[in-house]
Design a protein that fits this description.
Blueprint (H helix, E strand, L loop, with lengths): L19 H15 L1 H19 L5 H27 L7 H26 L5 H22 L5 H20 L2 H41 L11 H18 L3 E8 L2 H8 L1 H17 L7 E4 L4 E7 L3 H14 L3 E4 L4 E4 L3 E8 L7 H16 L6 E3 L6
Parallel strand pairs: 6-7
Antiparallel strand pairs: 1-3, 1-6, 2-3, 4-5
Helix pairs in contact: 1-4, 1-7, 2-3, 2-5, 3-4, 4-5, 4-6, 5-6, 5-7, 6-7, 9-10
Length: 385
């Protein structure tokens, strides 16, 4: 039987191909989209309030066109946010999603700013102050919901209040002109507050992701640890199951590592592990390939969408790379690099195969390599179906 995922594999803390800045940015975007329901309801309620308040003073057709535009736009924006949250967004593709989010925020600001352009009426101070009240309320309320993105709040506020301020300054009476001067100062303070909220959130997210990432990194070699290996293998298994793509697994073990440790000491053994981990990782050609240390001297590589031929090619490259010698700082001598034994398995994930079966095949192949002379690559007897 297939193993079921233990959780949302998209939330794995270890990310071997991504920078921490990209991960932090993606988390900011997730938080911003999580406010989609509140933002949508707030926009629609404020839009209805504006329509009701102006219905006796403004041509109804203009109000209905504006409200219809707001309704369609906000429902579409909510749909996009829910789609984003339900999908597995990679860090590599989140920049595209971020541009869509920023565009939606700016468009919302422009639509609200149009109310001052369309409905501001010189000589109707009550109507104008009602418009100003609604716009200022919307821009103020957005401080909390839009401050989790670096640019979202100013991109909403500036187009929302700029037309209103210009109308008050150039078409208003003395009182309205004073209000037009005060509004930018007020929102200037709110932008400072927004930046502080963003900074605090950014530091919190960054610290959290850093701690999570450390939990998935092998402290000695700097590559993925066993926990990251298990979760990533599970994630790629179910991806291969959905896409009907092959999944290959390479297990490798350092030959005679105990003897090396006993002869030259544990510090040299640690340096050997670090050197081999670096060489193994250097041979991975795609960001989706994962190198991990899964035991004392045992390493593994997960190769999504890779058949046996591709896995064999990478295994042979790694074996040829682990040559030469390592400097022993305690004795200043050069010590010959130990050899590797490697076992490879491959399968097309389906309902008849399993993750444990894939691993067992690779482990059996590794066992065969170790007991048939070491320093060799052995393929599993068959491809799991």
């Amino acid at each position: 039987m297939n193993e079921k995922p233990a959780g949302n594999t998209a939330d794995i803390g270890f990310s071997h191909e991504n920078t921490i800045d990209d991960q932090v940015g993606l988390e900011h975007l997730r938080i911003g989209n999580k406010h989609a329901l509140i933002i949508t309801l707030g926009n629609l309620l404020a839009s209805m309030l504006l329509v009701l308040g102006l219905s006796a003073h403004v041509e109804n057709s203009s109000l209905l066109i504006w409200f219809g535009t707001m309704l369609v736009f906000n429902l579409f924006r909510y749909y996009q946010a829910r789609k984003f949250l339900s999908a597995e967004i990679s860090v590599q593709s989140y920049h595209h999603q971020e541009r869509r989010y920023v565009l939606a925020v700016a468009t919302s600001g422009i639509l609200w700013g149009l109310t001052a352009v369309l409905f501001f009426s010189t000589g109707a101070p009550v109507q104008d102050m009602f418009i100003a009240l609604v716009l200022m309320s919307m821009a103020s309320a957005a401080t909390a919901s839009l401050s989790f993105h670096r640019f979202a709040y100013p991109l909403f506020v500036v187009p929302t209040i700029s037309p209103l301020v210009l109308k008050l300054l150039y078409e208003g009476d003395d009182t309205q002109q004073i209000i037009g001067l005060v509004i930018p100062l007020y929102f200037g303070f709110l932008m400072v507050l927004s930046r502080q909220i963003f900074y605090y959130a950014d530091q919190t997210i960054r610290n959290s992701l850093t701690n999570r990432q450390h939990a998935y990194v092998d402290y000695l070699t700097g590559i993925a640890n066993r926990r990251a290996f298990d979760q990533y293998l599970q994630k790629e298994w179910f991806r291969g199951l959905r896409a009907n793509q092959p999944l290959s697994l390479i297990l490798m073990d350092i030959d005679d590592f105990k003897k090396l440790n006993d002869t030259y000491g544990h510090p040299f053994g640690d340096k050997t592990l670090q050197s081999i981990a670096h060489r193994v990782k250097s041979k991975l050609k795609r960001s989706s390939d994962l190198a991990a240390r899964i035991g004392g001297e045992e390493f593994s590589i997960i190769l999504p969408n890779t058949g046996l031929d591709g896995a064999l090619s990478i295994a042979e490259e790694i074996q040829s790379e682990v040559t030469g010698s390592i400097h022993n700082p305690e004795t200043s001598e050069r010590v010959t690099m130990p050899t590797l034994s490697l076992g490879i398995s491959c399968c097309y994930p389906d309902q008849r195969s399993s993750i444990s079966g894939l691993y067992q095949q690779a482990d059996n192949a590794l066992y065969e390599a170790k007991h048939s002379g070491k320093n060799q690559v052995v393929l599993a007897d068959s491809i799991l179906s």
